[in-house]
Amino acid sequence: MTLNGWLQILFFLLAVFLVTMPLGSYMACVFTRRRTWLDPVMRPLERLVYRLTGVTETHEMRWTEYAVSSLLFSVVSMLVLYVMQRLQAALPFNPQGFAGVAPDLAFNTSASFTTNTNWQAYSGESTMSYLTQMAGLGYQNFVSAAAGIAVAIAFIRGIAQKEKETIGNFWVDMVRATLWVLLPIAIAGALFLVSQGVVQNLKPYDTAQTIEGAKQLIAQGPVASQEVIKQFGTNGGGFFNANSAHPFENPTPLSNFFAMFGIFAISSGLTYTLGSLTGSRRHGWAVWAAMAFLFLCGVTVAYWAEARGNPMLTKAGADQVANELAPGGNMEGKEVRFGIANTALFATVTTDASGGAVNGWHDSFTPLGGLVPLANIQLSEVVFGGVGAGMYGILVYIILAVFIAGLMVGRTPEYLGKKIQAFEVQMAMLTVLIFSLMILTFTAISSVSPDFGTSSIANHGPHGLSEMLYAYSSAAANNGSAFGGINVDTKWYNTTLGLTMLFGRFFMLIPPLAIAGSLSRKKLIPPSVGTFPVTTPLFSSLLVGVIVIVGALTFFPALSLGPIVEHFLMSNGLVF
């Protein structure tokens, strides 16, 4: 590890900290219908959308109607994307003449982008037409992110309101998230990326002749416009197979920083929105502090493990010490333009959130380095998390934390003036159980089934198990990154991973909305001497402890058989 590497990591966290208050305050204005500087442009457009779609913007929804609206919208969006992929060959903006996508892959991709996962069992530049990329996948990048923000805002409303049966209007929240938050960022961000060298065109692929005389196909397309919403919407799906390691997607150190910043920006801002809308900004900062602490722990381990290198290579005589002429450490799978520090940072950021974009190959990390992104995902991606999904995910853990605090002092737990009772705790536990059930069940079946799971892995033993565990963890958490080393474009993986994504999104979305509806109906209770404060370092510490303990109790046995045993094998010089 180097001082320069640490300065880059700390500068990144500082940038995220500085954007939290202004962006969070802006989103609080957007979702409470207070006037913003974009209203003269966006308000007429918003009214037009409601007029065309028949939405009554003053209509308030109970949590059940809110959930049904979200589910129906996602189902229809998924069907449209599926049909677009299947009919791709007959649709315009397909200069390469790509054929229609196979049924199982089309299902997997539709489920992936609808759920904000953006898992890709295909190579983008050789599978998807420009129209599918823009009108299909790009559209989902906007609306899946907006739907996540809408649910998070509904949850926050449920906490802030008193004695109300409703939690807002899904259609209004989603439209405002798209028009006021995501669209302006996407327009400005795309122009910035073009200035950095990210390509943006509708030209057919070029053919270049190499020095050796061979011909090479140079893929291109409308990349910048897809790249910015991929990052700020925590989508992660790459236009190219190499994702953010490709120079057409991520050409400079500044574009690399911008990508990481985008993954955290909105999710970090939502912590301030939480504090602003609930009238307790100190609580919002306490939540942010817990997230930041977990982030620093993860990036420290990842950076240390990768900078330390592989002891087996050291024993073989390889020099893995950093110096003026060599970066040192484990450079396998790293993009040499960014080095170990930025690759470890990117891997931590993209798995803390549900970003899924990568600028290095996680499968090539050392066992402990690879454990960090895997563990980040298995903590339900509540370390800032996906746009919206991270916020309602952390709120579920907050419910569990204040419940445990109430048990310790022997009184009914409270959260910001609302009593936490059996129903809220049951819904919170249901969210945690669904997540772990999907991951562990399908991983277990795949790991013992030669016909389905193990026939697709290139690495057997603990690393092969890690690859399967990572795939299902990524799908359930709607992350989309992968270890690699596993052929997931099979009927078994396309189907089971698609189902895991759908369950991971929608079965984990309904319980938080149910909690929001329950809290919204409750009276506010004045704080008393026995009330556990949720604005202190003690609360942040308890929240961190609950997140880590729940994740450790659930996944530690599986991790012990994967990256942990692989680490000991590597440390003892054994082949794995």
Give the SSE layout.
Elements: H1 3-31, H2 39-53, H3 63-86, H4 103-114, H5 130-160, H6 170-196, E1 206-209, E2 215-218, H7 223-232, H8 253-278, H9 281-308, H10 311-315, H11 339-352, H12 367-378, H13 389-409, E3 414-415, E4 418-419, H14 422-447, H15 462-476, H16 491-507, H17 510-520, H18 537-571
Antiparallel strand pairs: 1-2, 3-4
Helix pairs in contact: 1-8, 1-11, 2-6, 3-4, 3-5, 3-17, 4-16, 5-6, 5-7, 5-8, 5-13, 5-17, 6-7, 7-8, 8-9, 8-11, 9-11, 9-12, 9-18, 11-12, 12-15, 12-18, 13-14, 13-18, 14-15, 14-16, 14-17, 15-16, 15-18
Query: Quick one: how many beta strands?
Result: 4
Order of helices and strands: HHHHHHEEHHHHHHHEEHHHHH
Structural class by secondary-structure content: mainly alpha
- Looking across the biggest beta sheet, what order are the strands in? 1-2
Low-pLDDT sequence parts = none
- What sort of overall outline do the alpha carbons produce when their principal axes are compared? globular
Mean pLDDT: 90
Portion of residues in helices? Answer: 55-70%
Strand share of the residues? under 5%
For the CA atoms, what is the radius of gyration? 23 Å
For the sheet with most strands, the description reads: 2 strands, antiparallel
N-C termini distance: 26 Å
Q: Please work out how many helical segments DSSP would assign.
A: 18
